[in-house]
Design goal:
This protein is an all-alpha fold. The protein is built from 12 helices and no strands. The protein has one domain. Helices cover about 75% and strands about 0% of the residues.
C-alpha cells in the first residue's frame, strides 16, 4: 500500500507536507508557551531567533561564504520586516484558535500578488484575481460571528488585524527575498532574520521578561526546532526537480492545525470558519494550480 502511494506522490510533496507539519507544530508550541507557561510573545520571538541564529550561522560557515552578504540594505529590510511579521503572527496564534490563526496566514497570496505588481512589475493573472475574490469572501464569512450580537463566538478585532498584518508582512518578506535571490545566498538571507529579530524583540520586551521554567524552556527550544524542520522541508521541496507539483500540498498545514487545535487545545472550528477557510484555501489553490 505504501509503495503505490510513494510512487504517485512526488518526493517534493512529501517534503512540503513535512514542512506543513513542522510549521503547524511550531504554532502549537508557540500557543503552549504563551497560554500554559505565560511566556510573552516577544520573548518567544527572541527564543526562536536564538535557535535560528545558531543553526543559520552553522549553515553559512559550512558553505564557507561571508555571513554579511552583498545587498546589505535589502538584507536588513528583510530582517526587520520578517521580525515584525513574526511578532504579529505569533500574537494571532496565541489569541485566536489555532485553525483561524493559520487560515488568516493564507491571505498572503493576495498581498504577494499586489506587492509583486507594484515592486516587481509582475502581471496579475486571472487565477490571482479569482484568488483575491475568494480570499476576501472567505475572510468576510470567517468574521461574521463578530457582527452577530447573540453569537457565542467573538474574535478579537486586534487579533484578526494582527493575523492579516502578519500575512501582509510575510508577503512583503517574500517579495524582498525574491529580489535578494539575485544577489545573495539563501543561507545568508535566512541568517539576517534572527540577528535582527533578536535585538528588536528584546528591546520591545523590556522589563516584561519572564524567566522560563525547565519545561517552558523545552517548549521554546521546540519552537525553534519545528521552525527549522518546516524551513528545511520547504527548501528541499522547492529545490526538487518536480517542485511545481508540491506547492498545493503546503495547504495541508490548515488540516494539521485543525487537528492539533481539536486534540490538544479542545478547539472545534465553527461553521463560518469552515466555510470561510474553504473559500480562502480554494482561492489559494486556484492561484497555484492554474499556473501549473
Amino acid at each position: 500500500m505504501y509503495a503505490p502511494l510513494k510512487n504517485h506522490v512526488p518526493i517534493s510533496a512529501w517534503y512540503m507536507m513535512l514542512s506543513a507539519l513542522g510549521f503547524a507544530l511550531m504554532a502549537a508550541c508557540v500557543k503552549t508557551a504563551s497560554t500554559t507557561y505565560s511566556i510573552p510573545v516577544l520573548e518567544i520571538v527572541a527564543a526562536r531567533a536564538i535557535v535560528s541564529a545558531i543553526i543559520s550561522y552553522a549553515d553559512v560557515k559550512r558553505k564557507k561564504i561571508s555571513i554579511w552578504g552583498n545587498n546589505k540594505p535589502w538584507l536588513i529590510a528583510r530582517g526587520i520586516v520578517g521580525a515584525f511579521a513574526l511578532m504579529l503572527v505569533y500574537y494571532a496564534v496565541t489569541t485566536l484558535p489555532l485553525a483561524e490563526a493559520t487560515i488568516l496566514q493564507y491571505l498572503h497570496p493576495v498581498f504577494t500578488a499586489i506587492l509583486a505588481l507594484l515592486f516587481l512589475k509582475e502581471n496579475i493573472q486571472r487565477s490571482t484575481i479569482a484568488c483575491i475574490v475568494l480570499s476576501l469572501l472567505g475572510l468576510s464569512i470567517m468574521i461574521q460571528p463578530n457582527f452577530l450580537p447573540d453569537s457565542s463566538t467573538h474574535y478579537s478585532w486586534l487579533s484578526i488585524a494582527a493575523g492579516m498584518l502578519g500575512a501582509f508582512g510575510s508577503a512583503t518578506a517574500y517579495v524582498i527575498v525574491k529580489k535578494l535571490t539575485k544577489t545573495d545566498d539563501s543561507s545568508v538571507i535566512v541568517f539576517y532574520f534572527p540577528i535582527i529579530a533578536f535585538p528588536i524583540s528584546m528591546v520591545l520586551l523590556g522589563s516584561d521578561f519572564v524567566l522560563p521554567s525547565l519545561a517552558a524552556t523545552g517548549v521554546l527550544v521546540l519552537v525553534g526546532i519545528f521552525t527549522q524542520i518546516g524551513q528545511i522541508g520547504l527548501t528541499k521541496a522547492l529545490h526538487s526537480s518536480d517542485a511545481n507539483k508540491a506547492t498545493a500540498y503546503a495547504y495541508v498545514q490548515v488540516i494539521f492545525s485543525i487537528f492539533i487545535g481539536w486534540v490538544y487545545f479542545s478547539e472545534i472550528p465553527i461553521i463560518t470558519t469552515i466555510i470561510g477557510g474553504t473559500c480562502i484555501m480554494a482561492g489559494a489553490l486556484i492561484n497555484v494550480l492554474w499556473k501549473r
